[in-house]
Amino acid sequence: QVELVESGGGLVQAGGSLRLSCAASGRTFSYLNMKWFRQAPGKEREFVAAITRSGAVTNYAASLKGRFTISRDNAKNTVYLEMNGLKPEDTAVYYCNADEPGVVQSYWGQGTQVTVSS
To answer: 3-state secondary structure string, the chain?
Structure first.
């Protein structure tokens, strides 16, 4: 079982920045591929960014590339999402997700709210 705990959300003005963190426990962190998703009110959950186990490869939703940066620190069992140039449409609950190659089950955190005011 993997436990994921997100933090770092909050209220920020448009154009501002936030860094989200997701701390993992219960499995060797370097075994896990990590992703961020978000869900805005009334919308489906959508992919934001992903990072491989070593951190060597990252992937982003096309609309977010250049503003958001995913990174990880395997020594701290933590994945980060740096968000810059925030827009009101970035307002959502941001979720951390973990999966392990060869294992069907994936894991979700409880989410952290990000609100961007105009």
So the answer is: CCEEEEECCEEEECCCCEEEEEEEECCCHHHCEEEEEEECCCCCCEEEEEECCCCCCEEECCCCECCEEEEEECCCCEEEEEECCCCHHHCEEEEEEEECCCCCCEEECCCEEEEEEC
- Summarised one tens digit per residue, pLDDT across range 9-58 is 999 999 999 999 999 999 899 999 999 999 999 999 999 999 999 999 99
Tokens 């620190």 belong to 73
Which residue type is seen at 30?
Answer: S
**Residue 58 · residue 33 · CB < 8 Å:** no
What does the block give as tokens for 89? Answer: 């449409």
Beta-ladder partners of 40:
none
How far apart, in whole angstroms, are the C-alpha atoms of residue 60 and residue 108? 18
Residue whose entry in the numeric block shows the structure tokens 């709210």: 113
